[in-house]
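# nightly structure sweep
# worker-07 picked up a monomer target from the shared queue
# config: single-sequence mode, recycle default, output format = C-alpha cells
# input follows
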Amino acid sequence: MQTTRTHRKSVGPDQRRAFQRLQEAHFAHADAAKFIWQTKDAYLSRTERLLLKHVSVHGSDRLLEIGCGEGGNLELIDRVPAGAVGVDFSRAKVSWANRHLAGARFVCADAGCLPFPDETFDLILCRDVLHHVPDKSGVVNEMVRVCRTPGRMVIIEPNGRSPIMWLLGILVPAERDLLRNSLGRLQPLLERPQVEHRDVVWAQPFPLGRILFHYRWGLPGLSASWGRAVLGIERLIGRMIPSDRWGYIILTAVKRLTGPGMAAERL
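# output follows
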C-alpha cells in the first residue's frame, strides 16, 4: 500500500480538482456512437467479447459493474444474470443505458461511495475506471466492501507500457493517466487482508485496430473487410513482444474469509 500513499501525497488538491473536472467534462454526455462501435463493429465487438470472457459469470451471480458508461460491457458479457447493476457517475450515460438496455439496472453514483450495503454482490467488474479517478484505493475499498465472501472482483485496465495504449493516452487528455498504468501500480491496490490474488492475465497483444478502425478518427467502415487481417497481424506481433507490453492487464481477485468480524468490516 506504500505505493498508493506516496502517489496520493505527490498530487496536490489543485491538481486533483483539475483532474476531476477533466474527467467530468469528458464523460458528461452519453456517447451512443461509442456504444455502437463497441458492440456492433466487426473488429471491435469481437475483441471486446474475447476480453470480457475473463469475467466468468455463474448463473446465480449478482453482478455489479463499476463505471458502466452506456452499458457496452454488460451488453457483450456472456450470460449476464438477471438483476445485474451498472453504476456510473455520469447521469447522462446512466439515463441512456436505462433507456436502451434491458435486463440490467443502471444507477448514478460515485465509485468511491457506492449506495449498496456490505456484501451485496458475487461478482464485480471494474473496467477502464481506475485511471480516471484520483482516489484509486478508495474505489477498490468500495469494491471489497460490497463484494460478498467469497466473491470475485475483476479489474481490467489498459497497460501504459503498450505502444497502442500509450498512443491513445497521448491522443485523449482524459486518458492521460493510463500512461502510468502497470502491473506494479495496480497490484498493490489489492494487497489487503480481505483479498486473495487469483489471476493476472495480459490481453490484446497489439490492438492496432483500436486506432485504425476508431469511430472518431479512424476508418470504422473498413473493419468488416479488414478486421480479420488486422487481428492476424496483431497476433503475429504479439509473438514478438513480451506480454507485459500487451494492451490490457486483467486482475482477478477473491474476497476471502478473515478473522472474526473482519469479513464485514468496512475498510
